[in-house]
Design brief:
7-stranded mixed beta sheet; alpha/beta; 5-stranded parallel beta sheet; 21 helices
């Protein structure tokens, strides 16, 4: 790789970085567009500032690939997002250059402000503290909270506003219109009135202009913001043209950008089932509204948004607002389906409890990416939701095992129900092709027997049922194992549990989640009713699950194969 400190060779270095990123992501997937868009900015930041002593934090972290390559990880970059390979996000234990671990949005300003205050307390007035945040992320409430605080301090910090008009999907909200005015050289009032010195606009792909602007910022002190314009996917024609698709593409031809043939399947994605079923329901029920916190394309709502533009609301990266907005709609007789990734629902826990469950409002939470999600790793696995949702009063919790079950739960939720409901489902493909059947209501709190058996009852919840069934079939005596689908975590089917503990020699609870979910609920039931039937709970261990292929992680951390030892 070309020398970073030779200013004449920096354009060559930028080209080399783009080629390396494209070469690796084309063969294994990853966050392409965001990383291509900040190549020049990454070079300029490392050229001007004395990292890692000068602190550099990448908000969200989608755009960190050039940063990783420049900071001694070029060789390891070939194993990006593999088990035991480089993380796709900044990670403190991976490098001293990764000052703060990211993965969720809008944390960088708060973190960097904390670091700047720490330096001031230590008497260090020369260290620079830099947060790189996108125009979509800065619209989040947490970023506003940090800006509000930062403007009241004397902290030495520089906020780089990486303005590319995109998150995963195009940026939404009024703030994007304000940034458009700034791009047209309108005088800033917002940031300056917060006592944050605004400078802009800088071409984020012009290295001399970037370096000059950063060198000028290096001579200043206090809280500053530098407005930089970039193009997501810069330097790769298909990524610039199809920015949403190339945010995180599947494998593709590195020269043309055309997707490479994948193994063909007629199976539907769970996300497609949600989008298509909601389209049917919204056609029949004018009170249904869908809400997404900036994840319409990922959650299968893009077509729905085109069909019902007034009733599909993309609130931007604002999970707390999304949940309370849903609560407000519910008070006026509407039925909101709040479609949100499990890992991002963590950010709206108080709103879920205080604004929805406490008031017993009929909000439907479609919890996408529940369970292990694969290469995005610990920041994105949806493994805690069953445990953190189960203690909440008034909340129903369901987990369909396949597309047909998901479809019927979505239909049941608009009957309407007397309580809010959480419906959790995984990333990826459902196991059934014949799922577009007439809609049927599901009995709340009732499980289902999937297979008869003579000695051992296996109770699973959610899509892990398919792997459980396959593992039972591989045992030496599969006829010993009965298999049940809990379907509901809350209320759990107590009649079914009485039957299991009374009629089998052993009960096994299997879930793709942390302790505190199905196994804990079954254990509490058994203790309450003084059952002595042996109970084995199979769940994920008490640790953050790393990145890697989902099937690899399940084998390593869930270990359903222990059924063979019984």
């Amino acid at each position: 790789m070309t020398n970073l400190k030779d200013i004449a060779s920096l354009p060559t270095l930028a080209q080399e970085l783009r080629e390396r990123i494209i070469e690796v992501v084309a063969t294994r997937g990853g966050h392409l567009g965001a990383s291509l868009g900040v190549v020049e900015l990454t070079i300029a930041l490392h050229y001007v500032f004395n990292t890692p002593d000068d602190v550099l934090v990448w908000d969200v972290g989608h755009q960190c690939y050039a940063h990783k390559i420049l900071t001694g990880r070029d060789t390891d970059f070939a194993q990006l997002r593999e088990r035991n390979g480089l993380s796709g996000f900044p990670k403190r234990e991976e490098s001293v250059y990764d000052a703060f671990g990211t993965g969720h949005s809008s944390t960088s300003i708060s973190a960097v402000l904390g670091m700047a205050i720490a330096s001031a307390l230590e008497g260090n007035t020369s260290r620079h503290h830099i947060a790189v945040i996108g125009d979509a992320s800065i619209g989040s409430g947490m970023a506003f909270e940090a800006l509000n605080h930062a403007g009241s301090t004397q902290a030495n910090m520089l906020i780089i506003l990486n303005d590319n008009t995109m998150g995963i999907d195009p940026t939404t909200g009024a703030l994007k219109d304000y940034f458009q005015l700034l791009r047209a050289h309108y005088n800033d009032t917002f940031f300056n009135n917060l006592h944050i010195s605004y400078q802009g606009v800088v071409d984020g792909h012009n290295l001399p202009e970037l370096i000059n602007a950063l060198e000028a910022q290096k001579q200043l002190r206090g809280v500053r913001l530098l407005h930089v314009l970039t193009t997501k996917g810069k330097g790769f024609a298909q990524a610039e043209k199809e920015q949403t698709t190339f945010h995180s593409p599947a494998i593709f031809d590195k020269l043309t950008g055309h997707p490479l043939p994948a193994s063909r399947t007629s199976l539907p994605k769970f996300q497609e089932v949600v989008g298509q079923t909601l389209s049917e329901l919204m056609s029949l029920n004018p009170k249904i509204v869908a809400i997404s916190p900036a994840m319409c394309s990922g959650s299968g709502l893009s077509s729905l948004q085109k069909t019902f533009p007034e009733r599909v609301i993309d609130v931007g990266i604002a999970e707390q607002h999304a949940v309370t907005l849903a609560a407000g709609l519910a008070t006026r007789g509407y039925l909101p389906y709040c479609v949100i990734y499990s890992t991002f629902l963590q950010r709206a826990y108080d709103q879920l409890i205080h604004d929805v469950a406490l008031q017993n409002l009929p909000v439907v939470f479609c919890i996408d990416r529940a369970g292990i999600v694969g290469e995005d790793g610990a920041t994105h696995h949806g493994v805690f939701d069953m445990a953190f949702l189960r203690p909440i009063p008034n909340l129903l919790i369901a987990a369909p095992r396949n597309a047909a079950a998901l479809r019927n739960l979505l239909y049941t939720a608009q009957q309407p129900l007397p309580h809010p409901i959480a419906i959790r489902y995984p990333r990826g493909y459902a196991p059934d092709t014949d799922w577009q059947l007439p809609l049927q209501a599901v009995a709340i709190g009732k499980g289902e027997q999937l297979k008869e058996g003579t000695e051992i009852a296996v109770l699973s919840i959610g899509a892990i049922a398919q792997e459980v069934a396959a593992e039972i079939a591989r045992t030496p005596q599969p006829e010993r194992f009965a298999h049940y689908d809990a379907r509901f975590l809350k209320p759990i089917d107590e009649e079914m549990l009485h039957h299991l503990f009374s009629n089998y020699k052993q009960v096994i609870a299997v879930e793709e989640g942390s302790i505190g979910g199905l196994g804990s609920a079954v254990s509490e039931f058994a203790a309450l009713h003084r059952y002595t039937t042996p109970l084995l709970s199979i769940y994920l261990p008490d640790q953050f699950i790393p990145h890697g292929k989902s099937e690899t992680l399940r084998k390593e951390f869930l270990n359903i194969s222990q059924l063979n030892n019984l």
